[in-house]
Amino acid sequence: MTSPPHPNPQRRREPSHDSGYKLLYGHAAMVRDLLTGFVPGDWVHRLDLSTLERCSGSYVTDDLRDRADDLIWRLRWGQDWLYLYLLLEFQSTIDPWMAVRIQTYLGLLYQDLIRAEQLSANGRLPPVLPIVLYNGSQVWNAAQTLEPLIERAPPGLNEYRPRQAYLLLDEQRLAQAEQAPTRNLSAALFRLEASRSAEDALAILHALVDWLKEPEQSSLRRAFAVWFARVFLPKRLPGVSVTPMTDLSEVYHMLADNVEPWTEQWKQQGLEQGREATRHLLTRQARRRFSPEIAEQSQPLLAQISDLDQLEELGDQLLLSPDGDAWLAQLKAHGHAIPIARDDDRERPETRA
């Protein structure tokens, strides 16, 4: 039986991205569009979206309120409440134990609801929908239920196995597969995250300016402007100084004025993100196919290869290599090979990672 991955205590967090999303998903309109646009099932349409309210104060204790990466909302489903637990996952590696974390957090939430006597009319606990919102470049590969993480037990114990599950929303894959609805605030955010050019981002911003033009939407307009200027642009254009802005129209005009000089840098940053994602995937596959030691030796060799075509070709070589030594030999050979000329690189020198 394949053993679950070992816990990684040194997983790094990107607090600026977490706080930016927490600012956006602190607005009911964002949560509403997340539910209607991405949660499967007709039951969503029976929710009273006008009753959405963020849980704070007496509803949850400091143990949950002080977490930097989650939000708790509730809304009416008939006469009772339904809770939404939204966990923001922007860490540098995928947590293979996410299902365990979700069960732990929901247990804490239920304990708090019991203490606060926030029960149904029948004295029961409310249903909770746990959502993991993930925007990483890697394809999510962690178990989405708790059961696969637990070893087999004698047949008589099967009914006692926990089966906690969560709904994964992988932003990058949803946007790339064009599965997101058109006029939807959360979908616009996902498309911005997956955009690969300044022109694409400009088109999405233009739509957001139009959708958020009503006076009562001023707070969400400001949240988008702050996230775009302080989180999104610095990530896409490292080294470029961006003036802090609090108005979405101002952000749109700023990007429109700079779309030409920023296009090439934006493109190069996207290529580098693609290289890093491919290197990470190859390292993970080498660990699974050969050993952790071979994977560790692969990392510096992969870092020397900046051509994306060569990195993608190595995916085939990894499957064909009979052992770890043969794989490392392939890496060394590619590291000294002349980079393959890509169509978008023929008119300029290649930027090495």
Task: Please give a structural write-up.
There is one protein chain. The protein is about 50% helix and about 10% strand. By secondary structure, it is an alpha/beta fold. It has 2 domains: about 15-175; about 195-345, no CATH class. A 5-stranded mixed beta sheet has the order 1-2-3-4-5. The longest helix is centred in the C-terminal third of the chain and has 42 residues, at about 250-290. The radius of gyration is 23 Å and the shape is flat. It starts with 14 loop residues before the first helix and ends in an 18-residue tail after the last helix.
Total domain count? 2
According to DSSP, the number of beta strands is: 5
Strands in their spatial order, largest beta sheet = 1-2-3-4-5
Helix content estimate: 40-55%
Q: Major sheet, described briefly? A: 5 strands, mixed
List segments where confidence is low: pLDDT < 50 over at least 5 consecutive residues.
7-15, 338-353
Radius of gyration: 23 Å
Organism: Thiorhodovibrio winogradskyi
Pfam family, one: Transposase_31
Protein name: Transposase
How would you briefly describe this protein structure?
The protein has 353 residues and is an alpha/beta fold. It has helices at 15-24, 28-38, 62-65, 98-115, 171-176, 185-194, 198-211, 218-236, 248-289, 292-303, 308-320, 324-335; strands at 48-54, 70-77, 80-89, 128-134, 167-170.
